[in-house]
Design goal:
- The complex is a heterodimer of chains A (about 220) and B (about 325).
- Chain A has about 220 residues and is α+β, with helices and mostly antiparallel strands.
- In chain A, about 50% of the residues lie in helices and about 15% in strands.
- Chain A folds into two domains: about 110 residues, Double Stranded RNA Binding Domain, CATH 3.30.160; about 80 residues, no CATH class.
- Chain A has a five-stranded antiparallel β-sheet with strand order 1-5-4-3-2, with helices on one face.
- The longest helix of chain A has about 35 residues.
- The radius of gyration of chain A is 30 Å and the shape is elongated.
- Chain B is about 55% helix and about 5% strand.
- Chain B is built from 14 helices and four strands.
- Chain B starts with a strand and ends in a 12-residue tail after the last helix.
- The chains are: A alpha+beta (about 220), B mainly alpha (about 325).
- At the A-B interface, helix 2, helix 4 and helix 6 of A face helix 3 and helix 4 of B.
């Protein structure tokens, strides 16, 4: 599991300032968890949180739960975090969904082509015969709008069939978009959360409390 | 909260809503920025009309329109970055991914469903059943009149469908999901339950015959006016524009957390339809959404109309005997 869980797990660490206590560090980080639909529990060196229906502008909106731990070694204290994100997992899987949709569209097109081939062609031929060129309104002629083209029968046939047949191209495009979004998001969100933690740990507690934090809903501090 | 009386209604009693154009924020910055964000919308509209009116037949195709549409969306995304209306509506990675998921559904699954049971299929079936022909004389009208009629007929239908969604519970259920968005961004119009997205796309325009260029012109008008509905960009929208067309200001009022305000500004493109029927409220709101701004997950958005309908039906048809009686 550890081999693949990097897809939706973000792990990292931020060094604490020399002499910074756990209480001070978590005190500075707490505003990040005093957000709507966020609950957290804090013990001496550990903070565990859970989020649901995260607000769009929540700095940790992509994370659903996680653990923050302060470890003290010979080189000083370090904040280690382990966060999980269903949003990252969903974005990782989204290309597969759109590839599936593309495959379904191809199958649908094949099925449609078969049924069209079997159906009566005479109706289509009659329809094409009935098609007339629409003359431009005199006002449009005066203003110089291009006149509609005479429909070329071959092109019309090809075009008509092409338009009717569902195309898998949009699904392939969206599969590629989500693959790119995943790569971008995995790198960006990893960096963003690290910088948020680092900034908050460096900042003073009074600065943090002056920030307009949203009122906690279901927030709980142990 | 007291709210402000608009006609017979009190707007802003539940949640803050700015009523009246004079109270709305203006573009901040130098003369170049002011100029760009004052004239951007009209310039794009007139440029699009001119382009589609005069483009040679080899260029005037649906594929060109799709390309321009995508390019325009990317441009608007960059404008959101440069000049946001509200910082609290800033696009985040998660919001972008969520919005694009719905855009993706619209371009793929919904398009397939629409090709089988959409309005054009239904119109064709009705015409076939009653041996009606299309109203062919429409094609002899001037191009711009045809283009206006196409977009107006669609928007008029959308106005009543949308108003119906806010007034009839079975239609409200699929639409309610869209009202859980808590901020405006360029792709937020695509967010919603697929059932609602299918319903809102229904139109009766298929009964009429128009020339292909008129459809392209109508699409250009729709793009150049309707794209701003869910945008997070501060514009100094001209007076005549906001009198005729729906704007992000109007639509933010519609999405506000205030109940009465949310029952206004139903049209998609032409706000004058709301003015005609007395449902227009000129103004702006920053706090959007339902249930105090709870953000709904994609999973809940997919199931919510059905689970809510099930709950309501269960309550309605619950046997009286099954009611819990207090112990004696």
């Amino acid at each position: 599991m550890r081999l693949i869980d990097w897809i939706w797990h973000i792990r990292g660490s931020v060094a604490l300032a020399p002499g910074q206590s756990s209480d001070d560090a978590f005190g500075k980080l707490e505003p990040l968890f005093r957000q709507p639909n966020t609950s957290f529990e804090r013990s001496n060196d550990m903070l565990v949180f859970q989020k649901k229906d995260q607000a769009a502008q929540d700095k940790m909106s992509i994370f659903d739960d996680g653990t923050l731990r302060i470890e003290r070694g010979t080189s000083g204290a370090v904040l280690r975090y382990h966060l999980t994100s269903r949003a990252l997992l969903a974005c990782f899987l989204a290309p597969l969904l759109f590839l599936g949709i593309a495959q379904f569209t191809v199958m649908l097109g094949q099925h449609q082509a078969k049924t069209e081939h079997a159906s009566d062609k005479s109706a289509d031929a009659k329809k094409d015969k009935d098609k007339k060129i629409v003359p431009l309104n005199p006002i449009d002629k005066f203003l110089g709008a291009p006149a509609p083209e005479k429909p070329d029968k071959k092109d019309a046939d090809k075009g008509g069939k092409r338009d009717k047949k569902p195309s898998p191209t949009p699904a392939y495009v969206f599969a590629a978009i989500f693959a790119a979004l995943y790569v971008g998001g995995r790198i960006l969100e990893d960096r963003l959360i690290k910088s948020h933690f680092a900034k908050r740990l460096r900042g003073s507690r009074s600065t943090m409390t002056r920030e307009p934090a949203l009122p906690p809903v279901g927030g709980r501090a142990a | 909260m007291d709210g402000i009386r608009v006609g017979k209604r009190i707007i802003g009693a539940d949640s803050p809503v700015i009523v009246g154009w004079e109270n709305i924020g203006r573009v901040e910055g130098g003369p170049v920025k002011q100029f760009i964000f004052t004239w951007f919308q009209p310039t794009v509209l007139f440029a699009a009309i001119l382009f589609w009116y005069y483009a040679p037949n080899s260029i005037a195709k649906a594929s060109t329109a799709i390309g321009i549409g995508i390019g325009f969306k990317l441009l608007l995304l960059s404008l959101e970055w440069v000049n946001p209306r509200y910082d609290s509506w800033r696009l985040t990675w998660k919001e972008l991914v969520t919005d694009l998921f719905y855009v993706g559904l619209g371009y793929t699954v919904l398009r397939i469903v629409d090709s089988y049971i959409g309005s054009s299929v239904m119109v064709e079936a009705i015409q076939h059943l009653f041996h009606w022909d299309k109203f062919a004389w429409f094609t002899s009208l001037p191009l711009l009149v045809q283009a206006f009629l196409i977009s107006f007929i669609f928007d008029f239908g959308q106005y009543w469908m949308h108003r119906g969604m806010h007034n009839w519970y079975p239609l409200w259920l699929p639409h309610s999901v869209h009202h859980y968005i808590t901020q405006m961004n360029i792709n937020k119009g695509a967010v919603g339950n697929p059932v609602e997205l299918f319903l809102i796309g229904l139109g009766i325009g298929g009964f009429f015959d128009f020339v292909p260029r008129a459809f392209l012109l109508a699409g250009a008008i729709g793009m150049s006016v309707g794209s701003y509905m869910h945008i997070n960009v501060r514009f100094n929208t001209p007076r005549w524009w906001r009198f005729l067309f729906n704007t992000t200001e109007h639509h933010s009022v519609h999405h506000s957390r205030d109940y009465e305000a949310s029952r206004s500004n139903f049209a998609g493109t032409y706000i004058f339809i709301d003015r005609i029927f007395g449902t227009c409220v000129d103004g702006e709101a920053e706090l959007l959404g339902m249930e105090g701004g709870r953000r709904m997950s994609i999973r809940e958005q997919m199931t919510y109309p059905f689970t809510e309908a099930w709950k309501t039906l269960k309550e309605k048809f619950a046997r009286p005997g099954a009611m819990v009686m207090p112990a004696e």
